[in-house]
Fold this sequence. Notes:
The chain has helices at about 5-10, 55-60, 60-75, 120-135; strands spanning about 20, 25-30, 40-45, 80, 100-105. By secondary structure, the protein is an alpha+beta fold. It starts with a helix and ends with a helix. Bound molecules: guanosine-5'-monophosphate and zinc ion. Zinc ion binds next to helix 1.
Amino acid sequence: MKECIFCKIASGDIPSKKVYEDVHAFAFLDAEPLNIGHTLIVPKKHFETIDEMSSKELANMSKAIEKVSKGVMKLSEGMNILQNNNKIAGQVVPHVHFHLVPRYSGDGHVPEWGRKHNITEDQSNEFLRKIKSFLK
Ligand code: 5GP
Ligand code: ZN
């Protein structure tokens, strides 16, 4: 996509600190890292959110995710993989990307998300019924 910043990074039109590249995916250091080594992996083809991708297109990214994950895990103590879709989920750049965030002792980030203790059995069951019928 012409005006997309991550398309431009993946094609090399905008410079980045490249970590890894193959035919389908491009990985580079985040410009405003959450930790040292925070890496983004993007598909070279433009998709705004993950639900626009087919299983084949997702599978095409698996090699990049495998390779970079292994590198990050070697160089840190653990890792969070985040993938935001739409503004409500914190997506700022509308081109699918996986955040690989290395974790270090004492890095000040929370180890896990806050649990919602007020979700009822009915709410969970209603979601379950709907998603199962959608996935049929
Ligand atoms: P989102 O919030 O959309 O999931 O994440 C977008 C990420 O892209 C942010 O972590 C932000 O720091 C990073 N980012 C935005 N623009 C650029 C850029 O031009 N270069 C690089 N390397 N990272 C960027
Ligand atoms: Zn794009």
